[in-house]
Predict the structure.
Amino acid sequence: MTGETLFIGIDMGGTNLRFALVARSGAVVYQERTRTEIDRGLEPLLERIAGGIRTLEGEAALRSSAVGGVGIGVPGLISPDGYVHSSVNLVPLEKINLRQILAARTGYSVRILNDANAFALGESFFGGGRDFPSFLMLTLGTGVGGGLVLKRKIWTGTDGAAGEYGHATIYPDGRRCNCGNEGCLEQYASATAIAAAAAKAVAAGGATLLTEIAGGKPTAREVADAARRGDAVAAGIYAEAGRALGIAAATIANLLNIDALLLSGGVAESFDLLAGPLREELERRAFPLTAARLAVVRGELGEDAGILGSAAAAMG
Ligand SMILES: [Zn+2]
C-alpha cells in the first residue's frame, strides 16, 4: 500500500444508511447510500454494514490505500464502549455491543457514537466548528439533537448521554414532550414544533397566509417562506423558536463559557428568522462576558456532517 490511509465513516439513520471513505483532510474519496430497512431485522442490517465496509475496503485498495478504522454514528443512547442502551428508531440494535460485533466481523477498529455527536465532531474537524475549540451544536430537525465539543473533543458524559440539550426545560409548564418532560427546547425549536404551532395558529382563526398553505398545515419551511413574505404570524412562530434557543443558549453560555453555538438541520436554514430573537434573549439572560463570547453560527456540512464526523471518530 502506497496511498494515504483512509477512514470509513458510516451514518446510520432511521431511513438511510450512508457509507463514505474519507481522507484525513476531510475529502470524501468515495461514498454509497442505501436504505437502513430496520424492519428486516438485526442480522440483515449487520450483514449490510459489514458488506458496505468490504466494498469501501475494495475502493481503498483501488487507490493503493489502507483503511485505518471505522466510525459509525447511530441514533440513540450509546455508551463510550459501543454498547447501545436504547435507540428509539432502531430498536433491534438495543442491548448489543455494536462495536464488538462489527470489529469481530470486519477485523477493523470500530468506534460507535451517537449520531448528533457525530454531526458535532464532523463540524469540529471539517466545518463550522473549525475556528471554535468548544461549542454546542444543535440539529434542528424532526427533533432537536445536541452534541457538545469541549476543546475539540466530544463530551459524552459518564454514560454516553451528554449533549441532549433538546430536552432542556425552557418553560416549566410548557408543551408536553415525548420524553415525559414539559417545556423542552425541542417543543419550540424543532421543525415538528414549528409546523404544530402553525397548525394551531390556523385553527385559532387569525389573519395569516398560513391558512392558504397546504390546507392550513404548512411545513416549517413553508412557515419560513410566509414569514419572508411579511406574514406576522409566521414570523412570530420563528421568533418564538429563536427566543427558546436564546434562553437555552444563555444557560449554556453561563455554565460553560464556550466559544459558539452551531445550528444545523432544516430549521437552521431559516437562520435569518431565528438569529435576532435568539441574540436578544441570550444577551438579556447571560453575563455580558459569556454572551459576547458565544458566537451563534450555522453548521457548514449539512447532512455530510454525519459521515465526516463518524470518519473523524475513527481517525482518533
Ligand atoms: Zn423532552
